[in-house]
């Protein structure tokens, strides 16, 4: 979804994002008591970059390699029939699989919750994790399903007339979260 | 991409690459313990086979079931077609049942086109082979196999086959596989050479985007992939070559000939193989021969085509690729 750049205002900048990810990494270690069996799965596109950054931070904290992968949920979306089919992104499950592990799903924005519902379905087909948790950079509210994030970078109360755009250096050349008005339909 | 897949010639380069890339992701599903996706849940696909085919029908059926579509198999034998029902009547019956897609194999060239354009039926039509005309999913799976083997599984994503030299050998005249492959490989930027006895080269081949040669040995050292075609005796109504032995001597692929191919070159065959005539057992069983891979790749390609034609509210068109909304 595009955003009118003129009235978009940054709510998180590069250093904030780095700080937020560091905090989430510490929270994961604390809740998982050492992150022994943690597997991070990012949801394409930007969730994957966030998952990789989180994994790097977790490795710094625990001095252990943290398996990280990606989970494409396109084929599991409930709105497939409302749009033309999208090109598929990559699903990459770490070699040891997810059975019996603590899977932390990572995404940039939590909104209706439908993406996460689809991700839970996709996980079902891939294995049986011990538990599934959710980490998001921004929670903008407006949930349509009973889904809640375990780790939130920033709670961002928004109106439905607004749009949240996350830009990450890997894809967009810079780190920022923009809040702007939805382009006229 | 259009609503139907009738001919490999209808595909643009971008559409073809999108199908190949999508198939690469579909292939990963085959590696999972649960080889199933909910994508086409509630959609009905009919496999309408007027001509015998086990390989293609099973391949389509596997693809449809992996995408959770409801599958109806229809074979002309034992159906009302043998009582004299026309294609139109069959189509209207299917339309009344509310099918979403028809996969059609027919002995008459053009039957899928007729079905798609006549207005008898609203469903998407996928050509699974019509007469001596086209077999687009076969061409796609062949291109997919070539891209995987010659460029690489991950390295090939987004790539076409530019600069690759592909040789098709044998019964070009009766081969829909050859026609589809020439069209698609040309679109993908490959350089195609047909090698066949002069009697098995179709009239009008000069207008095809490929070269024609009668000398297999001269072409082999310059080929990245050599595809042997089946000699379609059931379609032959005259003697096209003196004896099987002579055909085999001039156009068959044996170990000696395979040794003249470049180190990296692969041998392909759409199957079913006539061992000893088109291809020796030594070649067919060598690791350079991709026949079994082609079968596995066929399921991935057909899943990709079904997803791209039926997965959304309209077929995947080129402009819709990047700007689909990012609702969370």
From TrEMBL, chain A:
Coiled-coil region: none
Keyword flag Ligase: no
EC class: transferase
Record key words, sorted: Glycosyltransferase, Transcription, Transcription regulation, Transferase
Superkingdom, taxonomy of origin: Bacteria
CDD domains in the record: PRTases_typeI
Phosphoribosyltransferase domain segment(s): 12-155
GO molecular function: uracil phosphoribosyltransferase activity
GO biological process terms held by the UniProt record: regulation of DNA-templated transcription
Database matches in InterPro entries: PRTase-like, PRTase_dom, PyrR, PyrR_bifunctional
Motif, PRPP-binding: chain positions: 103-115
Reactions the enzyme catalyzes: UMP + diphosphate = 5-phospho-alpha-D-ribose 1-diphosphate + uracil
Enzyme Commission designation: 2.4.2.9
Role this protein plays: Regulates the transcription of the pyrimidine nucleotide (pyr) operon in response to exogenous pyrimidines.
Family: Belongs to the purine/pyrimidine phosphoribosyltransferase family. PyrR subfamily.
Protein name: Bifunctional protein PyrR
UniProtKB/TrEMBL annotation, chain B:
One Pfam short name: OTCace
Domain Aspartate/ornithine carbamoyltransferase carbamoyl-P binding: 3-147
GO biological process: 'de novo' pyrimidine nucleobase biosynthetic process; 'de novo' UMP biosynthetic process; amino acid metabolic process
Enzyme class: transferase
Catalytic activity entry: carbamoyl phosphate + L-aspartate = N-carbamoyl-L-aspartate + phosphate + H(+)
Binding site for carbamoyl phosphate: 55-56, 105, 135, 138, 271-272
Subunit relationships: Heterododecamer (2C3:3R2) of six catalytic PyrB chains organized as two trimers (C3), and six regulatory PyrI chains organized as three dimers (R2).
Biological function: Catalyzes the condensation of carbamoyl phosphate and aspartate to form carbamoyl aspartate and inorganic phosphate, the committed step in the de novo pyrimidine nucleotide biosynthesis pathway.
Protein name (Swiss-Prot/TrEMBL): Aspartate carbamoyltransferase
Gene encoding the protein: pyrB
């Amino acid at each position: 979804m595009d955003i009118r750049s003129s009235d978009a205002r940054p709510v998180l900048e590069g250093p904030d994002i780095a700080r937020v990810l560091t905090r989430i990494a510490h929270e994961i270690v604390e809740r998982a008591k050492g992150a022994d069996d943690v597997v991070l799965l990012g949801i394409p596109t930007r969730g994957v970059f966030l998952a990789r950054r989180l994994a790097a931070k977790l490795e710094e904290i625990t001095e252990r390699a943290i398996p990280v992968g990606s989970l494409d949920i396109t084929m599991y979306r409930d709105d497939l029939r409302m749009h033309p089919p999208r090109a598929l992104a990559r699903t990459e499950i770490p070699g040891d699989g997810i059975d019996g592990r603590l899977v932390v799903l990572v995404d940039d924005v939590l909104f209706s919750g439908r993406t996460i519902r689809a991700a839970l379905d996709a996980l079902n087909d891939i294995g049986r994790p011990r538990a599934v948790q959710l980490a998001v950079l921004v929670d903008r509210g407006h949930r349509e399903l009973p889904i809640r994030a375990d780790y939130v970078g920033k709670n961002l109360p928004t109106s439905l007339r607004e749009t949240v755009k996350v830009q990450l250096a890997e894809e967009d050349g810079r780190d920022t979260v923009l809040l702007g008005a939805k382009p006229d339909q | 991409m259009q609503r139907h897949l009738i001919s490999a010639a209808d595909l643009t380069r971008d559409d073809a690459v999108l199908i190949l890339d999508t198939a690469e992701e579909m292939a990963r599903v085959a590696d999972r313990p649960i080889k199933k996706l909910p994508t086409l849940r509630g959609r009905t696909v009919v496999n309408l086979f007027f001509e015998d085919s086990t390989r293609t029908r099973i391949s389509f059926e596997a693809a449809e079931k992996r995408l959770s579509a409801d599958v109806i198999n229809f074979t002309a034998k034992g159906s009302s077609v043998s009582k004299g029902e026309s294609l139109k009547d069959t189509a209207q019956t299917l339309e009344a049942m509310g099918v979403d897609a028809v996969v059609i194999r027919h002995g008459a060239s053009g039957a899928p086109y007729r079905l798609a354009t006549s207005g008898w039926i609203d469903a998407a039509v996928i050509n699974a082979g019509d007469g001596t005309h086209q077999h687009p999913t076969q061409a796609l799976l062949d291109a997919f196999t070539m891209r995987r083997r010659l460029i690489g599984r991950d390295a090939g994503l987004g790539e076409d086959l530019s600069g690759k030299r592909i040789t098709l050998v044998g019964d070009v005249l009766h081969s829909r596989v050859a026609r589809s492959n020439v069209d698609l490989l040309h679109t993908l930027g490959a350089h195609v050479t047909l090698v066949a006895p002069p009697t098995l080269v179709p009239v009008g081949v000069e207008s095809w985007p490929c070269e024609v040669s009668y000398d297999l040995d001269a072409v082999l050292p310059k080929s990245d992939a050599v595809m042997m075609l089946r000699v379609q005796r059931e379609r032959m109504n005259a003697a096209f070559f003196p004896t099987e032995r002579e055909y085999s001597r001039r156009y068959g692929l044996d170990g000696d000939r395979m040794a003249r191919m470049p180190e990296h070159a692969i041998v392909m065959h759409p199957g079913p193989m006539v061992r000893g005539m088109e291809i020796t057992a030594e070649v067919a069983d060598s690791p350079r021969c991709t026949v079994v891979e082609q079968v596995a790749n066929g399921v991935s390609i057909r899943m990709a085509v079904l997803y791209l034609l039926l997965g959304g509210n309209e077929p995947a068109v080129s402009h819709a690729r990047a700007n689909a909304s990012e609702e969370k």
